[in-house]
What does this fold into?
Amino acid sequence: MRARSIATALVLLVAACGGTVGETTTTAPQAETTTTPVPSTTAPASEPATTTPTVAETTTTSPTAASGPQFVMSTVALGDSAMVVITNIGDEAGSLGGHWLCQRPQYYEFPNVELAAGQSAAVSVGGDVFLPPPGAVVIEGTAFIGPFSPAGGEVGLYSSNSFGNPNDILSYVEWGASGHGRSGTAVSAGIWPESGFVETTADTSAIIANELPALRPDDWNSA
It folds into this structure.
């Protein structure tokens, strides 16, 4: 009777709690909360920070002009007023002594005439009229290397009397046609283009450089 009474009491207790006899009630463990680590924006101390390489700027430097005197032809007058004007485009004074003009097969050697930087000198080539530009040094005497016909001709300025040496020709121009006696030397020296010439007419009185040194026909204007 005591055992039965205990069993009855258990049944009543379970019923009062809303349970069912024989069921095992378990409490579900609380789910673990997992936190996904947020990536750090700071590089680990053991790894160097990544940087974008800087490309160095490329600087183009223009070739520096040679120091000292530099003589070139700046004007060639034709016809009755034939003359040659030489200009010192260097940064120092220098003498024209030992320099030559050539229109093959005639040659002329300059006297010892000093030209400051930027200064010009004019020499007659045997025309009836000699009109040197204002401010130019006038060279006495005549350079008999003409005539300078508007129909065609050439003239070269040399640093010596080695007229076939490309290393010694300093300035050159031909007009009316190409292929004059010293044009090949000027082409070899890189101071004149092959087959190049300044166009002239019967009325052309001078060819004047618009850029110095004048190295191609476009660097000269016919007047």
Q: What stands out?
A: DSSP finds two helices and twelve strands in the chain.
